[in-house]
UniProtKB/TrEMBL annotation, chains A, B:
Residues 29-85, 94-156 form the CBS domain. It comes from the Bacteria. The chain holds residues 54 to 209 of 209 of the full protein. This is CBS domain-containing protein/biotin operon repressor. Keywords: CBS domain. It comes from Alicyclobacillus cycloheptanicus.
C-alpha cells in the first residue's frame, strides 16, 4: 500500500518521475557486443553471419572502424535480385558512413530509442566520442529488454 | 523543481510508481494495423509485401483467420537456398499455428514485451479472445515507440 502522503502527487506527477527515471538509463549499461563483418566479405558471408549470430543487422568494419551496416532487408533485396550473392561484396549492399546512424556510448537509452524511431532503423552501432570506433550495439530488442525490466518494479 | 514532500519517497518508491504506470499501457491502445498475406501466396509475393509494407514479419491468414507468420529471416533462408521463390508457397516457409506466439488485445503492452523477449520474436499478432481472429500487431518497434513516449514526461 502506498503511504497517504502519496496523494499529494497527481497522476501527472508520477508520470514525471517515470520519465525522469527512464531517461537515466544509459547506453553504456545496456549495449550488447557488436556483431561485425569485414567490408571485403561477400553478401553470402553476411547472410551466414546474420544466421549464426541471430541478429537483424551487421556492422561492417575496415581495420576495426565503422564503414557501414547491412540488414536482413538489404540482403533479402540482393538475394531475390538474381545476383550471385557469393560474388557480391557486402560493401555494395550496405548502408555506408556517413549515412549510418550511430549513438555515443555516453548517451541515454532514451536518446538511442528516439534515434531509431526518427531514422526508422532497428539497431544502432555504439561508438566512442561520436567517432568510428565501434564499442557495441543497441537495438529495439535492447529497448524491449529495458522496458520489461522497468515494468518489473512492483509496489512494496 | 520537485516539492519537498517528494523526499519522503526513496528512489525505490519512484521506481515502483514507474513500473505501475508502465504496466497500465494496453496492447489495445498501441497496436498497429496487421499486415497480412493469404496462405496461398508465393514466398516471392511475401517478399514483395514485406518491402511495400516495410515490416519485418507478415501474418499469414486463411479466410481472415491466423494460420502462421513469416519473417524476413524465413524468407532470406529460402531465397539463398537455391529455390525458385516464385513457386514456393509461403505456407511452406512460415511458422505455423499453434507454434505462433500471439497476444490478446486486452493484454498489457508489458505482457507483449515479455512474450517477445521470452520467445525471441520481433512481433506478435494481436488476437481477440485468445483465438485466431487477428485484430492487429505489436512489435519491438511498438515497444520502442511507447518507451520514447514515456521518456518524454518532464518535471513540471
Amino acid at each position: 500500500a502506498r503511504p497517504r502522503v502519496g496523494y499529494f502527487y497527481s497522476g501527472k506527477k508520477n508520470a514525471d518521475l517515470f520519465g525522469e527515471s527512464l531517461r537515466k538509463l544509459r547506453v553504456r549499461d545496456y549495449k550488447s557486443v557488436p556483431t561485425v563483418i569485414e567490408e571485403t566479405s561477400s553478401a553470402y558471408d553476411a547472410v551466414v553471419t546474420l544466421f549464426t549470430e541471430d541478429v537483424g543487422t551487421l556492422i561492417v568494419v575496415r581495420s576495426g572502424q565503422l564503414v557501414g551496416v547491412v540488414s536482413r532487408k538489404d540482403l533479402l533485396k540482393v538475394a531475390i535480385g538474381g545476383n550471385d550473392i557469393h560474388k557480391v561484396p557486402v560493401s555494395l549492399v550496405m548502408t555506408r558512413t556517413p549515412n549510418v546512424v550511430t549513438v555515443d556510448v555516453d548517451a541515454s537509452l532514451y536518446d538511442a530509442a528516439v534515434l531509431m524511431m526518427r531514422h526508422e532503423v532497428d539497431s544502432l552501432p555504439v561508438v566512442r566520442d561520436s567517432g568510428n570506433e565501434v564499442v557495441g550495439r543497441v537495438s529495439k530488442t535492447t529497448i524491449t529488454r529495458a522496458f520489461v525490466e522497468l515494468g518489473q518494479y512492483r509496489d512494496v
